[in-house]
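Progress report, Aim 2. The chain analyzed during this reporting quarter is listed below.
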Amino acid sequence: MDSLEHLITRSIKTYYKSKLFAPIIFLVFLAVIGIIFPVRHMLFPTMYEEEQISLYEMYNSKENYARFNLNNLYFTGYTSKWLDRTRGYFYYTMINSECVVVLLDPDTCEQGAPTIDSLSIKGEIVYDSVATRTLLTNLASDLNWNENGILSTVSSYSISEPDATGAAARLFEFLYVILGLYSILQIIVYCIYIAFPVISSPVQKTRAYGKPSEILAEAEEELATLPQLATEDMFITEHYFIETSSYGVAIVPIDAIIWIYKYSTMHKFLWHHFSITYTLYITAGKRHYIKCPKNIKSDIDGIMDYLSEANHDILVGFSEENRLKVEEIQNDFEIVRKITGFLSKRV
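Predicted C-alpha cells for the chain:
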C-alpha cells in the first residue's frame, strides 16, 4: 500500500522526465550543427562595409554569411541557371583593390542591369566556385585573354546572394529556428509538469468531469487506501480507472466511460513469432480517448470485466454496431452538420 501513495503524481513526474531526453538530445544536435557549420552567421549576418571586408579572413574564420555594402558593380553578361531558370546574374566589383565576382539575385539587379552604383545584400562567401571558374574561363575565351592571367587577376573568393537567400537557405533557417524553439518549449513545459503535476495534460483532461485538482486528490486517496483491482500499470478504484504506464498516465471516472475493447498485436521478427500483446482502448465522454498498450490478456480481461460490472452502460467489445452507437453518443459529426447547414443556407 505504501507504494501506491501518490502513485499518480509520481508516475506523471517519471513520465515527463523520460520525455525530456528527446528534446534535450535534439537541442544538442542543433548546437553541434551550429558549431560545425556557420549557422549563427547565416541567421544573424554581420554588416560589413567595403573597406572592412577581407573575404579571406572571413571565410577562414567561418563567417561565410554576412551583409555586404558594395559599390560600382558591372554586369559580366553571364548568368547562372538551374533547371532552365535564371538563378542569378554575375557581376564584378573591386573590393580593397581586389576584383571580386558577385552573383546577384535577378530581382536585386533588375534582371541584369549593366551597372549598379551601390547596393546592400546578404551573401555567402564561396571559395574557388566551379561556377565562377567556368565564368572566368568563358570570359577569357570571349575576350581572347589568357585563362591563367584572368584567374590570377580575379579573387578566388566570390560572393553569392542566391546561396544565402534562396529557397533552400530560407527553408533551412526556418526549420532550424522553429525546431529549436519547439524543443526549448517542450523542455520548459515538461519541467513545469514535473514541478507541478496538477497542471499536466493527463490531469487537465479530467476538467471535462470536474475540477482537476480535486479529481487528482480523490483518485490518489482512493488508490492509496482501497484499490478495487490492480495490474502492473492499470488500476480501478471506487470511482476511477487509472493508468500509470511508461506510455502515459490517465485518470477517467468510471461513470464517464462509454466504450471499451481490446486489440491484439503479434510481435515477430522475420519468420519467428515472439509474443502477443494486447492493447486496451477506452472511450469516455467529452471525446476522452485512452490507450493502454502492451498488456497481457488476463489483465485486460479482468479490467474489462470489472468496468462492465461497475457501469452497465459501457459498451464492451469492438463491433460496427458499438462504433455507430459511440459515434451517435459523442455526436462526432455535429460540426460537419453545422458547416453543411450553413453552406446550404448560403447557397
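The mean pLDDT is 88. Residues 93 and 340 are 63 Å apart (CA to CA). These observations will guide the mutagenesis work planned for the next reporting period.
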